[in-house]
Specification:
Blueprint: E1 2-10, H1 14-21, H2 24-33, E2 36-46, E3 59-63, H3 69-79, E4 84-87, H4 99-103, E5 110-116, H5 125-142, E6 154-157, H6 158-166, H7 175-185, E7 189-194, H8 207-231
């Protein structure tokens, strides 16, 4: 049986983190039915004020100040011990029961299984427009052809992905694009799997502040890739 680690970035969301922790028995059951053993759950408190309280069955990593979603996911991933690592947003906009669909695509040739919200009801119009714009620029700048790079529900092959996480450059919301782009550059396989979307109850994404940052991060990634290509 494959082993599974569950990782969640948390920023100023005590109530959502507590609710999600109560869903861990459900995830454990779904995982078992799919041939996975849930061996640990790791939440990263990314400089929350007040700090995230201890939760039953959850290992909590703490950042003294806000480092960004990318750094939170990286630190949790590098702490994880499972064969596969499932990432989820703290608001559980994609229910943990949807793991069954990602698990169905998880074989040894796959590096990342990306949950996709494409065509699913419940996505707020503002988020849908921002996602389309970001996907357009990601495709234009980086050449990614995935439809939904930013869904917070992803399954990673730990052994294959560890070197990539160790060298992760992007600290905030565009880190997904860096992971996917790097895998593709290295000849790895990334697959998309449609999942149900129940609407984000809360998001730490600030459109006016974070959208320009995400675009800048994409440009940084492109320049970094060009530098590597020139050196090669």
């Amino acid at each position: 049986m494959k082993t599974l680690s569950f990782i969640v970035p948390v920023y100023n969301a005590q109530d959502l983190a507590r609710k999600l922790s109560l869903r861990l028995p459900d995830l454990k059951e779904v995982a078992y039915e799919c041939g996975f053993e849930l061996i640990e759950s790791i939440f990263v408190d990314d400089g929350s004020n007040p700090k995230l309280v201890d939760l039953d069955g959850v290992k909590i990593l703490r950042h003294e100040k806000n480092m960004g979603k990318g750094m939170s996911v990286r630190d949790a991933f590098l702490e994880a011990k499972g064969d596969w690592v499932l990432m989820s947003d703290v608001d559980e906009s994609v229910p943990v029961s949807q793991f069954q669909y990602l698990a169905s695509r998880a074989d040894d040739n796959v590096w990342i299984v990306c949950g996709s919200r494409r065509g699913r009801p419940g996505v707020p119009i503002k988020r849908k427009i921002l996602s389309k714009i970001f996907s357009f620029f990601a495709s234009l700048i980086m050449g990614n052809r995935l439809m939904d790079t930013q869904c917070g529900f992803k399954l990673f092959h730990r052994e294959k992905m560890r070197p990539i996480f160790e060298n992760l450059m992007i600290k905030r919301f565009a880190f997904d694009v860096e992971l996917i782009t790097t895998v593709i550059e290295q000849g790895g396989e990334v697959v998309e799997q449609n999942v149900s979307w129940h609407g984000g109850k809360r998001s730490s994404l600030n459109v006016l502040k974070d959208a320009p940052r995400m675009l800048i991060d994409l440009i940084r990634l492109k320049l970094s890739k060009r530098g590597r290509d020139n050196r090669g």
